[in-house]
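Why this split exists: single-chain examples teach little about how molecules sit against one another. For that reason, every record in the complexes split bundles all components of an assembly together and asks for one structure covering all of them. Below is a record exactly as it appears in the raw files.
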Amino acid sequence: MSSTTEPRAGGASTLHSQAAAAKATTRRLAAASTREKNAALTAMADALLRATPRILEANCVDVDAAAMRGQTAALVDRLRLTEARVAQIAEGVRQIAALPDPVGRIERLEARPNGLRVGRMTVPLGLVGIVYEARPNVTIDAAALCLKSGNACLLRGGSEALASNRALVSVVGDALASAGLPREAVSFVDDTDREGVREMARLSGVLDLLIPRGGEGLIRFVTEHATVPVIQHYKGVCHVYVDGAADLAMAEAIAVNAKTHRPGVCNAMETLLVDAACAHAFLPRVADAMRAKGVALRGCGRARALVPSMAAASDADWDTEYLDLVLSVRVVDGLDAALAHIAAHGTGHTEAIVSADRDRGERFVREVDASLVLVNASTRFNDGFELGLGAEMGISTTKLHAYGPMGLEELCARKWVGYGAGQIRG
Amino acid sequence: MSSTTEPRAGGASTLHSQAAAAKATTRRLAAASTREKNAALTAMADALLRATPRILEANCVDVDAAAMRGQTAALVDRLRLTEARVAQIAEGVRQIAALPDPVGRIERLEARPNGLRVGRMTVPLGLVGIVYEARPNVTIDAAALCLKSGNACLLRGGSEALASNRALVSVVGDALASAGLPREAVSFVDDTDREGVREMARLSGVLDLLIPRGGEGLIRFVTEHATVPVIQHYKGVCHVYVDGAADLAMAEAIAVNAKTHRPGVCNAMETLLVDAACAHAFLPRVADAMRAKGVALRGCGRARALVPSMAAASDADWDTEYLDLVLSVRVVDGLDAALAHIAAHGTGHTEAIVSADRDRGERFVREVDASLVLVNASTRFNDGFELGLGAEMGISTTKLHAYGPMGLEELCARKWVGYGAGQIRG
């Protein structure tokens, strides 16, 4: 990993040679045994606890600087580490060590008519780049997930967290070395200008995948310039559609949970769609329940006719990810209109229907294009832990390769393998 | 599909609106039943046979123009259609109709501790773009594979085949319409300048995937400019490694088949690696066998010491895809040296070991990074039909999403689905 703190000079070749050094470890990482990888992860968790004072000291530098620059309280909060937070990060690393090794599993092995036995084997991707923003815990989560899945990684955190990240990465490097694995397998790009992101996105033949995690601006910038494969973790404008055949108590509980359980995250509901068939019965009660939780409502004309105290929604509301206690509400004429609204305004993240009608539920599941489509459950379940992946790298809204939470398996590719006894083509 | 033959004016928006019209059919295509899709495919096969005279007439225009422009015999051959060739293309469409529908299958459905049943459902990608060169059969193969997998497609063939492709696409459009599916689901970009390829590669939010099929120059151009996901079908510098523990008769048969069965394709062997432990016994016999098939040999110093009549290989030979009856030969010191050579010079396509030693075979399978890794079989098996996919779109050397032959399943994504009974997050 780079430890250069001097001003960058000839930065282009610096990044390229750092990435090449990380790439050079991929054969070793791909062949690492489960035991070796778990030893490194356990060493990493132990070292995080031992080095907590040093990590918190470095984190103070970042937090003070952010506060002095007048950053928002939300950003400072994402940035801040505490003893408890570091312990939680270390515990997350231990949980990743405890997960099954995703590498080297052969699936669907079958004999062809000529006797050649063919199947697919899970293999690491190689060198995975991650570009992220203020949260220093991503440094450890990403390093641990990549290591367990046999991938080397090239991490580039936000400038706000530079001191924290340097301290964390030095702990990771020592843990790798103590387990006999190459330090360069977790490489940190110690650089904070955006030109560096552009360069990273163009490391064709070196970087096997780039994952931008952060605001829409960062993701668009990476997509615009990338020549390497990119998996985007875009925003979620998530809907709950309450069908005419819904159990209204269930619908209310799901809608309130989807909106208010954690409004600042991507799988929170932003728009509630209500079938005209039940709007009269449902809208007033859900409006009361939402208000009791402090949610501001913005409705279409038909919704406001039933709940006149709602503010009026503008066209822009249907495409807005509020990430806040704000909800847009629209009355629609049944399932087809709900499907059309979601096709027009959804972002491929998470969509839910509440209905006791099995056929309508199944049509919704089949016809909605989103990384998770739910029947009678809260949108908040789009999460690696909730779906059983054990840990995740974020939620992909890219349809190729990984659509939804990216766990260890999604950090692997599948190659074909064939076992023969001298077969040739005739 | 576009039928504009006037000079392009405001081409940018023409392509964009054509693509948007194709995109607009994706919801309909994704929801199409197996019966509807198969009816369209059968109609397509029937119509190809009925329209053969018209197709051959159009093809003559292309072939004559290519011959007049002094194109190579190989290109003219790829371009030429005959009655038998059209019948074969139609038969391929019928075979695709007979394959299982890849869409809508739920995999690994399991109940979470809270009772939420979650799984993954195969879904179409949406709108798939394919850029290809002279072979007009790709137009039909791609249209049929996309249709069966519920995808709309935007096809852009080479300028050499323009008249042929117009005739073929008009047949496809009629077949779609006769089955009640939208004509625009198979859209043909009737344009032949490279700027159009650049524009197509930048249709973010419209094109869900772009597959460039053709020479290295085309693929690099697309990758350089793309903002949409790209799956590359790159060249194959494929190796056969003959281990010291190989059955030499088997090794000879595999090497000769891998090199000479069809030397012009990407899964043909380009470099033979021979373990020093058996080089003395193996090299002279395989050299004789290759020569008898007209193969020109280029060897390293150690190979030439054993077979002095071989030409000397230059450094560039180890990275060359000859696509011809030429073979480079290198003597290596056992498995580790073979793995290092392949890691340095392989292109992630197809690699094979010949060895009776099970452990070495397994190490080769696990450690070689290629879309198909074989033990004791010819590299020629990297093919959708041979691996049991039924039909293919080409062979991906992109590791993400699809690594190896792209069949119907690889033209699908997997979304998460969840069936609940009112679950919310606590």
